Amino acid sequence: MKTNFSILAIAVVLSLSAFFLPDTAFAQQGISRIPLQRHDLSIPGWEAVQVRIDFDKGAAFGMHTHPGEEVIYVLKGTFIYEVEGKGQVKLKAGDTLFIPAGVAHAAKNIGKNKAIELATYIVEKGKPILVKQ
């Protein structure tokens, strides 16, 4: 019985680490990622993933891409996004941004306080959510 429990515990930890991998694999000082939901889409092999991302004052996330689309909604604060092909885009609370699949971009909190965004990713299952450049 104890062995079965140990195997179950290991399986749970491994499956949770797969969900949180984008958060831990690319952790950056001053930025925290809080997974909110992950659901299969009606399109076979695709999923939607929502994450709340908190940026401390002055925190920045360097250039990266996603294998699928990213839809950003700024909940709080002011950001500068550097988007390949668009240059700099300044967003404040209530603003949105669409990042096409494979487009390199970076984000920085330029406000005086914490900034928060809601990121929704539409990605092919089994692919990483985030690819560091």
Describe the 3D structure.
With 133 residues, the chain is an alpha+beta fold. It has one domain: Jelly Rolls, CATH 2.60.120. The chain contains one helix and ten strands; from the N terminus they run H-E-E-E-E-E-E-E-E-E-E. The longest helix is centred in the N-terminal third of the chain and has 24 residues, at 2-25. It is globular and about 45 Å long. The model is unreliable at 5-25 (pLDDT under 50).
Query: What proportion strand?
Result: over 45%
Distance between the termini: 46 Å
Q: Main β-sheet, in a few words?
A: 5 strands, antiparallel
Number of separate structural domains: 1
* CATH homologous superfamily descriptor: Jelly Rolls
Number-wise, the strands total 10
Spans where pLDDT lies below 50 across 5 or more residues: 5-25
Rg on CA atoms, Å:
16 Å
Mean pLDDT: 86
Count of DSSP-assigned helices: 1
- According to CATH, the fold-level topology is Jelly Rolls
Which second-level CATH architecture applies? Sandwich
Shape: globular
Instruction: Quickly name the level 1 CATH class.
Output: Mainly Beta
Helical content class: 10-25%
Structural class assignment:
alpha+beta
Strand order of the largest sheet: 1-2-9-4-7
Spell the H/E element sequence.
Answer: HEEEEEEEEEE
Keywords: Signal
Signal peptide: 1-27
Domain Cupin type-2: 53-115
InterPro entries: Cupin_2 (IPR013096), RmlC-like_jellyroll (IPR014710), RmlC_Cupin_sf (IPR011051)
